[in-house]
Predict the structure.
Amino acid sequence: MEGRSLTLVPNAIALKNMKILTLRAAALLLLVGSLAGCDLFTVDDESSPNGPALEDILADPSIENLSAVALGVEAASRVDLDLYLIDVGVIGREYWRTSNAEPRFTGDLLGRGTSVLDDNTFYITRPWNARYRVVRNANILLQLVESNAALENAVDRLAAEEASYARGYAKTWKAYQYLLNLNLTFENGLRFIGVGEEVAGPVESYDASLAQIAALLDEGLGDLEGSASFFGTTVDITYMNRAVAARVAAYRGDFSQVLALLADAFDVDGIGAADLGSGVAHLFSTGGGDLTNPVFFPPTNAVGDAILAHPSYANEIEEGDTRIDKVEQRLGDDGEPTVSSFDELASQFSFFRYKSVTDGVPVTRNAELVLLRAEARAQTGDLAGAIADLNTIRNAAGLADYSGASEQSAVVDEMLRQRRYELYGEGHRWVDTRRYDRLSTLPIDRQERTDRDGNVIEADDVWDRFPIPATENVGS
């Protein structure tokens, strides 16, 4: 079961005045099965053949158990990550998940005809539940840390700085998981659950949820400063914490805060073309018991089980942009380029952002930091600085410096364009177009039409949010 589920990608030179750390973690899904109950927010403390009972874990706050739970938090963060990425990528018109076995990928998610997003269907219930299981595991880690502090056996008791690190680690992971679920439900809001609580709080609004996530990240940073790891080498959780905090600040429209966060934590000026891919990523492997990259599909897969790149990606890319390699030309049986069709959708290209079953999926990386600073500079009037950052991204993709108009609206347009191509397939475009009120610019893949029987089929829809799952009994 040994593998690495999260790590600092090499050459993450952007972090300033903070320790650069790496993680070697067992790919444990320790608590995913054993803590899953009927009520998402009620911890199941019954014995389970899938893992230790919760009461046994909490009764033994040893360093061994602390380490196992921490690694379980991290490893479980990859569960149903593919459904999250498919949700945001399909609605954001980055690609289509085509499946003979599951028509809802090209039906519900694209708003085909009279289809709507269902509040009791796998594409929302599974990623939502998976993220809250990680939150719950992080809460268990926090409980264990407090119990460990009371141990009389000093050999098995964390040093104060190690306990502080564990708290920061747990809070950072909680905040990130909350953010992913909030990205799905948007104005439908989010529920928060405290440490040791079995019942979640009321649904918080989008703005209130972002504020709570930002506060949790700041709390986590306070715990991480001056702390030391307690399970050997560790993920650069501080890099992740501050990068996600900057993302949240951008979502809140607080661009002065984005600039302050980046200046305080990172050397963005030191990021060159070779460093853009560095950061924090979910890793996968073919090792026994580990997970492989769930959004890697061989570009030669039959159209009935594939991810097709949205044709607009290749059609609208700038000539000479090397990021065209994130899609792959589909070939027919004769080896010649072909167009693949599925459910009235047609594309010449396969999605090929991830090249193998072991490719990592970014949590955040240096390219996002540069683009966040470009966005914040543009929004605060430093257009020359924004263009300089955008040129870092453009030049790395084989493009000349930006030569368009220099007014704010044009620079913001270019920033969103570079985010589209640089962060393709990493879960950003739908959120970006939504927060800039540009969902209407996304393609309508199937316009109103008439079927063979003369029935009118409505045009596709572009959704702005998912409903909160019906199991939450809160409505939407």
About this structure: The chain has 14 helices and eleven strands. The radius of gyration is 22 Å. The CA atoms of residues 160 and 382 lie 43 Å apart.
